[in-house]
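Researcher: I'd like a structural prediction for the single chain below. Treat it as a standalone chain; there are no partners to consider.
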Amino acid sequence: MKIALITGISGQDGSYLTEYLLSKGYEVHGLVRKIALEDPSHRLWRLKNVFDKIILHAANIESYQSIFKIMQKIKPDECYHLASESFVSYLFEDEYSTIKTNINGIHNILSSLKDACPECKLYFAGSSEMFGNAEESPQNEKSRFNPRSIYGISKVAGYQLVKNYRNQYGLFTCSGILFNHESPRRGFEFVTRKISSSIARINKGLANEIRLGNIDSERDWGFSGDYVVAMHSMLQQEKPIDVVVATGQSFSVRDFLKIGFDEVGLNYKDYVKIDNRFYRPSEKVKLIGDASKAKKHLNWTPTINFQELVLMMVKSDIDALQEKN
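Model: Treating it as a single chain, here is the predicted structure.
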C-alpha cells in the first residue's frame, strides 16, 4: 500500500485528491494546523465523508522541524504540497504572510524530504498566476513567467526551488502549473463561489443583489476534481516533469453569471451591481492554458466543461440552503 502525504488536505483540492487516492488504495496522511483539529466540523468540513479513513497530523509548514518529524515518522511514497496562501491579492496588503507561508513552506517540505525520505516523489502546486502579464496566449510550459501579484511571485519562487532540488539533489520533484479550477468546495472569497452562493440566496429570497467588479474579466476555468487526477498522474511517471493543467478555453464572469442565473429562471442583469472596490487590473494578453503536454504525457483531458461546472456549483449551493431549512 502506497503512503501519501498531503499538505493543504482540508482545502478544495486536498479533499478531492484525498478521495481520489483512497479510491486507488492509498494510505492517506494530511497536515493541518492544530486549530483545525480542535474545530473539525468548521475547519475540516470538506473531509467529513472520509474523516475516519485518513490520518491527520498537526503541523506548521513554516517550521522545518515540525515537517521533518512527520516525514521521518511516516516515510511517504508521495507528497502533494497544496498548502499555501491561495487568495490572489493585487494590493500587496498581505505580501509578508504570503511570501513567508508560500516560499518557506515549500522550502521546508523539500529540505525535509531530502533529509528524511529522499525516495519520496513530490508534487508542487504551481499556478497560472506565475504567468501574470503574459507575453503570449495560450501559455505552456515554455512561456515566460511574469507575475504581477505577490501570490504569483511566491509561486515562481516555489517552482524554482522545486526545480533546484530536482537538479541538485536528484529528487523526484515536479510542478503542476494549474489554471483556475473551481468546485462546490471552493471558498466563498473566490468569485465563482461568491456568484453561485449568491444565486442560491437570491433564488431563496435571502438576498437581492450581488456586487462584483469587472464582469468581462476572463479566465480558463476547470473542475478541481479533474485537476487532482493530473496531479496524481504526474507522480506516476518514470521521470519528473512540469506540466500545465488547463481546459484551453476562456470564459468571462458574465458567462458564469448568465448560465447560473438562467438555471433558476432569473436575469443576472436585474441583480448584479458593479462595485469598483472589486476591480482587478486587466490582462493585456488572455491567461489561457495549453495543456497539450498533459494530454500527451499524462493522457489527461478535462471531463467537466464550463457550463457543467457552473450548474454543479449553483445546484450544490441551492441544495445546501434547502438542507439548512
